[in-house]
């Protein structure tokens, strides 16, 4: 008995490794051939796929060095909105993945079906993620995938994407945003998983525009995907990048923001036609400033909250408000010059040269010519001097009291003349200050016309160019 048991004891240790290797390699050996179905129906096919379900934890390749190619594309179904403050783009897409399972192949004639829908938990799924994802996917889950007889698996499900995007709102509301969606495996290198584009980016753009139902204030321009370059080193993660270009619909902002602002500026422009010395002009401008401030407060929700740069529209509104305030201050200055110029000192020489001559020439308001003096007063004074120095008058003054009265009257006339000359000098200074006020008023009026004209032309050009894109 001992001699018979000894060979068995030596045989079992040598058989055990062989049996273990056979058990490990048996699924792979079985997978090299197509699955066999007992009957041409789906229950028999599902039963034949049981060994495949047991291999769902590993990448479905017979040779571990084989790369799994994931073919993918998506359809942009809706642009839900853009959050300028958080720099986020919210979209809704239909995502499609295709890859091959080398363990699951069968004859459609034998099994009675060329494809079958299976629970997602039964199959191996690629760990494809979107790098720009910033929130949880709230789209409804799809519990099934399609498995075809040649081993291809089709996984399709909707995704609500809240992705980060570097927004450029400098040209708001005529801005165009370029946001990226980067698909890549989270843990597998390119030697394990390679992501390829299933259909061209032009087809994706066309399909997206055909099925898109909601865009809100945004319009899809195009979807592009740059060509990828591969390197010799396989220790990096393969990525597939899509660039989504969207354009803001500017009509709402032009009608509700830009046009009312231009109208208020135009009304303030025509307020320069009111008499400067009138009190109604200053009160009218104060009312316009108050109305413009209330308008900006009401429309504040339509303006972008933050961004990398200050939008041009904010600069435009600030300039409009600054011009209104400047016109009010100018009105106060002009009113002061016109009403109190008689008490002012004479106009300095540099103001007379810079304002009355240079600026007056630029705004087509030349300086008033000097009025000729009244020669009658000079004639009377000359005659009085002549008569005063005549010896005949001296002799007649002693004799005639009437001539003495005339002499006293001549002295009174000379005193009146001195007072009149002082008044003429004061009126001349007052007229110069008034002329300075009118020139400043005309200058600001010209600046207003230029600003309003340039603003209207720029808005029309930018608006027309946005429609052409």
Helix content: 40-55%
Strand neighbour order, sheet with most strands? 3-5-6-2-1-8
Shape: rod-shaped
Low-confidence stretches: 1-32, 369-387
Roughly how many Å is the radius of gyration?
47 Å
Terminal Cα separation, in Å? Answer: 97 Å
Structure summary, number of beta strands: 10
Short description:
With 469 residues, the protein is α+β, with helices and mostly antiparallel strands. The chain contains 12 helices and 10 strands.
Explain what the structure shows:
This protein has 469 residues and is of the alpha+beta class. The chain has 2 domains: 42-249, Acetylcholine Binding Protein, Chain: A, CATH 2.70.170; 250-469. 49% of the residues lie in helices and 19% in strands. It is built from 12 helices and 10 strands. It has helices at 2-31, 42-48, 50-54, 108-111, 201-211, 251-270, 279-298, 312-340, 349-362, 375-389, 391-399, 401-468, and strands spanning 68-83, 88-100, 115-119, 128-130, 144-148, 152-164, 176-185, 193-197, 218-224, 239-248. A 6-stranded mixed beta sheet has the order 3-5-6-2-1-8, covered by helices on one side. A 4-stranded antiparallel beta sheet has the order 4-7-10-9. The longest helix has 68 residues, at 401-468. The protein is rod-shaped. The termini are far apart. The relative contact order is 0.09.
């Amino acid at each position: 008995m001992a001699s018979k048991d000894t060979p068995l004891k030596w045989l079992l240790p040598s058989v055990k490794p062989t049996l273990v290797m056979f058990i490990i390699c048996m699924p792979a050996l079985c997978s090299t051939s197509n699955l066999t179905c007992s009957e041409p129906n789906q229950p028999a096919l599902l039963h034949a796929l049981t060994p495949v379900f047991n291999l769902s934890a590993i990448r479905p390749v017979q040779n571990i060095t084989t790369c799994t190619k994931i073919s993918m594309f998506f359809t942009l179904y809706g642009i839900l909105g853009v959050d300028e403050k958080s720099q986020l783009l919210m979209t809704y897409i239909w995502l499609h993945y295709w890859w091959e399972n080398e363990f699951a192949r069968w004859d459609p004639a034998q099994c009675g079906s060329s494809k079958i829908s299976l629970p997602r938990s039964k199959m191996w799924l690629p760990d494809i993620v979107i790098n720009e994802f910033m929130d949880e996917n709230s789209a409804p889950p799809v519990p099934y995938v399609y498995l075809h007889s040649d081993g291809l698996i089709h996984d399709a499900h909707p995704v609500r994407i809240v992705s980060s995007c570097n927004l450029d709102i400098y040209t708001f509301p005529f801005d165009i945003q370029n946001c990226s969606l980067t698909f890549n495996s989270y843990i597998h290198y390119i030697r394990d998983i390679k992501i390829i584009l299933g259909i061209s980016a032009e087809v994706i753009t066309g399909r997206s525009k055909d099925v898109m139902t909601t865009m809100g204030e945004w319009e899809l321009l195009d979807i592009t995907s740059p060509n990828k370059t591969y390197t010799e080193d396989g220790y990096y993660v393969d990525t597939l990048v899509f660039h989504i270009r969207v354009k803001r619909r500017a009509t709402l902002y032009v009608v509700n923001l830009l046009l009312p602002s231009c109208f208020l500026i135009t009304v303030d422009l025509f307020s320069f036609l009111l008499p400067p010395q009138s009190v109604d002009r200053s009160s009218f401008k104060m009312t316009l400033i108050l109305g413009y401030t209330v308008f900006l407060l009401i429309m504040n929700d339509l303006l972008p909250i933050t961004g990398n740069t200050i939008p041009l529209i904010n600069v435009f509104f600030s300039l409009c408000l600054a011009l209104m305030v400047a016109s009010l201050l100018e009105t106060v200055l002009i009113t002061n010059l016109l009403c109190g110029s008689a008490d002012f000192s004479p106009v300095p020489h540099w103001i007379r040269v810079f304002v009355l001559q240079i600026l007056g020439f630029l705004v087509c308001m030349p300086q008033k010519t000097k009025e000729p003096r009244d020669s009658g007063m000079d004639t009377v004074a000359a005659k009085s001097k002549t008569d005063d120095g005549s010896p005949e008058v001296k002799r007649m003054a002693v004799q005639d009291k009437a001539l003495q009265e005339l002499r006293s009257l001549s002295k009174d006339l000379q005193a009146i003349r001195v007072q009149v000359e002082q008044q003429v000098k004061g009126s001349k200074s007052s007229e110069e200050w008034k002329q300075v006020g009118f020139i400043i008023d005309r200058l600001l009026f010209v600046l207003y016309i230029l600003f309003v004209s340039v603003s209207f032309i720029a808005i029309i050009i930018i608006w027309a160019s946005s429609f052409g894109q």
